[in-house]
Structures are given as structure tokens and as C-alpha cells.
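Researcher: Go.
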Amino acid sequence: MQQSISAGRVAALVGPLDGGPAYASLEASLRLLIGDGRIGYDVRLPSERDLTAALGLSRTTVARAYAGLRESGYAAARQGSGTFTRVPGGRSVTHDHALSPRMDEEIDLGCAATGAAPGLTEAFAGAATDLPAYLGGHGYFLAGLPVLQEAIAAQYTRRGLPTDPRQVVVTPGALAASALVSVALTQPGTRVLVESPVYPNAVQALRTAGARVLPSPVDSGAVEGEAGGWAMDEIGARLRQVRPALAYLVPDFQNPTGHLMADEQRAQLADHLAAAGTTAVVDEAHHAIALDDVDLPLPLAAHAPGAISLGSAAKAYWGGLRLGWVRAPHALVDDLLRARLGLDLGTPVMEQLVLRRLLDAGPVLPGHLDRLREQRDTLVSGLREHLPSWRFRVPAGGLSLWCALPAPLAVPLAAAAEERGVAITPGPVFAIETGLSRYVRIAWTRPAAELADAVPRLAAAWAHTLHGAPAGARGPERMTVA
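Model: Structure:
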């Protein structure tokens, strides 16, 4: 089904026009919005008449801007249907293919996974004393160790979402949880609405299951004080338009933008989902990584009882603790378990005992947030000093910055940075279709000293990119793993 965007939404995204001829300024703004992916690929633009009214410009101005878009390859006209967005060179997107991180002298700011939280060793030692009680059995727990299911359920209940332990299925990581849901609830052609930009590996899990992935833009808002985030009216219209079976959402410190969806927005979204008959699949991997004093909203499933929630131990404790979980309505648990029989027979008992002990201490270990906050602030301070032309909004939590560059050079910048021993992830990796070449994601998961060392290297890479990058330069052959 064809996607369209309203004149009011375009006017809000365009904002005040710069100086110079109005048609040229409007064309430049629209070209940037399309190139960055904030207006998606093959989206029908508003009619000239509607956009004229929304912007308060003349019909001739809008017509000349649309003509400029067509001439530059950012739009195409269809007889009797309207004007549709394009990008020069087609739908192709730059993706990276080599596993990251590398074990060498490189400073890896592309992988948003932390070193082990203080206290992890003690949890492993304690779990070793719990293990003998399980050694007499077969060790297969398809849904998870009952003691861990209880601990995860208790966490949800404390967050305002009463949960029965039988609603929890433990998996080998949050990505495995996404894959399990994809296998259980989709088939070839199933429509799934997915935020863009978004964590790319979850999208790949859906596509591997044969789902038809449809983008729903999240406004990057990469300027301090600029709200960005989710436009609920547009999401509601999109849900009514395509009627997807599922919607993959990241409302808690969204990856990669860092936005936190407010409670009132969650309630609105729940109404839209119910009206469309769509089940939300909610990735909560970052919800515990709140670095500032913010009131964390209720889980989305508290507003949308049919929602499926995905959790992760990797972000709150350690990337090497490969455990995640699905919290699902009772009616869907059997479907998940049947699907799981074709994937695996459970997760390692020892690691589950470790996580149970960790959760007893809370959703995140003491001191871990302090360390991440110091690392975030070090990265922010360095970027403001060495790269003042880069724009970003400092998120209240999560593990990375989403930076807007002054020019759409994310891919050659990533290549130049790798040559200088720093790994970052270019924006197109997070695009559902195309665009985002003006953005990079930089994780603050390395020690503060490494971050302080990395930023001047990034500045040198940026200077090289501005003055020496050939058109169409490829980025590093790298895949985003977290």
C-alpha cells in the first residue's frame, strides 16, 4: 500500500525557510529531509495546493521546488497519482558486513555494548554455588529457569506492569527474542511496521522470517532543545493505512536516536495500535540505562495489554552475558514455545542463575550508571570542543549519541575514521530503505580515556573527509552488532 505524508507534517519538518529565493530554500529543505530519511523513499508528497496552504507560500514557489526535486533525482511524478520521493542512484543502502568489534588497537565506538559491570564476578561465583542443585536433571528449560522467570516477572511488576512468571520466555539475548517472535508470529508477506532509523539486526530477523517491513519515521531531533521523536498522528495514520500485524517499537532510549517516549504518547500509541488491530513488539533493551534524573514511563504494555516486550541483560550488565527474554500475553506463550522447538531447547543454566542473582540487586548494578554517565559526558565534551559543527541532542539514557553532520558524508567519514583507528557506524546502516547519510552513531561504551583519545582522531577524519573524500566512497566493511 502506498505511503503518503501530510502537508502539515511536511511543513513541520521544513520549518522556517532560510534566506534566498523561497523555491530554492524549500527544495533544499525537502532534499535534505528525503536524503536523511525523515521523509521516506517512495512516499507520495502533498499536492502543490495542499503544501501551498500549509506553508503560506505561492503555488508557483512550491511547483518550482518540486520541479527542482525531480531534476535532481529526489522525486518523480506519476501521471494522475502525484509526486513521489526518490534518491539519486535508487534504493540502495550502504550496509556493513564484517563482524564487529575487532580485537586490535582500534577504539570501537560502533558497538553499543559495555564492559562488565562491577559486581559481575561475584554473581558468577554465587551462581556456581547454586548450580549443583540442577545437575541431576536434564538441564533443558524451554521457557527458562522458574527462579529466573520469577525474577524477571517481579521486575515488570515493580515497573507497573503486573506479570505472571509464566508469561516470560528466557532467550539467548534480545536479538534471539526478536527472532523467536518473528518466527512465531510472522510468515512470508506479513506486514510489520518498523521505526526508522532503528537497530538493524532486529529488522534483519523480521526479513529472514519473510515479513514485509514497512518504515515509520522517527524524527532524529539531533539538536539540543529540539524535541524530535515520534509524531503520533502520523503513526496513527500509517497504522490505519497499512494495517500491519506487528509494529516493532523502541520507546525506551530509542536506538539510535536516544529518544524516550512519554507516558501520554504511549497511551496515544496504544489507542492507535488497538484501532489498527496491530500487536506491538516492544524492544526494551535500554530501559534500565537511565543516566539522568528522569521519570521513567510505564512499560508500553501497561497501556497496550496485548503487547510483547523484549528485554536484555547485555546492556545493563555485560555484552557477554547472552541472555534476553520475551514477556508476552498468556495467549501467545504457547505459540512462542512451539516456534522455539525449531530453534533451540533453552539457554545455559549457569548464565540464568547468574542473571537471577543480578536481578536480585536491581535492574542495573550500583556504579554501572556512574561509569556510563562519565563516559557519555567525556564524549559530549570532546565533540563540542573538537567538532563544534556537529549537531546532537544529549539523551538522558542509552549508550550512544546520534550525531548530525554538516554534510551527507557519513559513509566516507566512517572509512576515514577507521583508517585512524576509530570505529563508528554510519547512519545508512540504521535506515529501513535509504537515506541518513548525514548521521553517525557514536557509542560511549569505551573507557573515558579511550573516548578522549578517539575524538581528536574523529576530528582529523572529518577534516580529511571534507577535503578529500571521493564521491561514493565506501564505508568500512563492518556490521553493527549492538
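Model: The first strand starts at residue 3 and ends at 4.
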